[in-house]
Amino acid sequence: MPPASSMPATASARERSGAFYAVAAFAMWGAFPAYFLVLRPAGAFEIVDWRVLFSVLFCAIAITVMRKWPALIAIVRQPRQLFMLASPRC
Hints:
The chain is mostly helical.
């Protein structure tokens, strides 16, 4: 590996960002047990309900920000396309 002084600045910045992402990933992985302990009083259905609710809210906000409501409405009005989007693909 060449000395750090001969490396371009972008490589050094890339290494720092990679190290940051690695530390963040390990911290999140280490925090998961505490997260599940906090969720223990809630039942499985309640957790799924909240996940669905927040997913719908997030999608509505994303569609609003991207101004894609007309495209979504066009798909909803075509049952065949809606079915193709909703059906699982194996």
